[in-house]
Model the fold of this input.
Amino acid sequence: MAERITGTPDEPWSVERLGAELKSYIGRLGHLWVEGEITQWSNSRGNVFGKLKDVSADATISFNVWSSTLSRIEGDFAQGDRAVLLVKPDYWPRGGTLSMVAAQIRHVGLGELLARLEALRRSLAQEGLFDASRKRPLPFLPNRIGLITGRDSDAEKDVLRNAQLRWPGVEFRVEHAAVQGDQTVPTVLAALARLEADPEVDVIVIARGGGDFQNLLGFSDEALVRAVAAATTPIVSAIGHEADRPLLDEVADLRASTPTDAAKRIVPDVAEELNRITQARAQLRARATQHVHREAERLESFRSRPALARPGTMLESLWQDLARLTARSDELAARSVELHGQRLDHLRQTLRALSPQATLDRGYAVVQTASGSVARDAAAVTAGDALLVTLASGTLDADVRAAHPEH
Done:
């Protein structure tokens, strides 16, 4: 059957007419449901521009979600989600591009599971199980390390080999468990309980060597996540998957990117620690030597001072001051004695001048009656009275022969 040809070389269609015809033809397709994997999800000013890839064939279409439609869509979507879209094909003549305008989007299959996991992630985050304040520090050098991993797995070998290379004396207690499939959660929970009950275990590592999203679902199980959050022993998550981080990574006290990284994070490197000790000793020795030298220089500066170089000079100066003060005190004491002696002589002379003895010494006498009173008036005595006469030297007993009062 011959192919139909529209137009002629002399009367061809214009590009505008071709675009209009394509737009009209494509527009008659109406809305249709299409399923695929979202390989691009870019939000620009509230509008989404994405791409949807066939899950089993190499075929991709572009789609747009306008902001008015996006506000009515339930759930969150991102690259890698599997979804079913209600789209309407739309041809843009000006740019010559074909796109699908999405009116509805729904999660299907794995996308629904991702939505549930995202809801669980938000719920656990609101409870505070992912808060940094809950993270417990790892011990510097664990007494014994608990390891939960698959039997004869590369993850087990990586953790053991790298930890022993860093610290040859490190001890492990290995508990094997299923790391994918339906038995992952119960076997990991049982291993965790056994290690938690061991008082010798200071840190627990849960290790797996990566894998696709579905193989890691067990490490996002709510029961396992809550058991890790309630554990009293610090726990390291070493699942080894960057694109889709399981919830175990969020709740663990430390997330290691790989099992090898976990080994480096849980034990120190003996060579590095010995090097640090050597450096610390060298620094202490240098600081001690510097301090001794500095103090020796200070001591030498003290010894070079005149007071210590010739201590007699300081004593001579003080001795001169002492001699000068002694001479001054002797002078002042002598002067004080002299002045007080002169004052004493003056007082003695004054006392002598005022003393009755001085009067007696001039020839006067004190006459006392028998009663002891001084006889001042001749009328106070009568003939025959006994008198006591006190002279300048000695006394006399006398009798009155006659009294001659003054007329």
The CA atoms of residues 207 and 279 lie 35 Å apart.
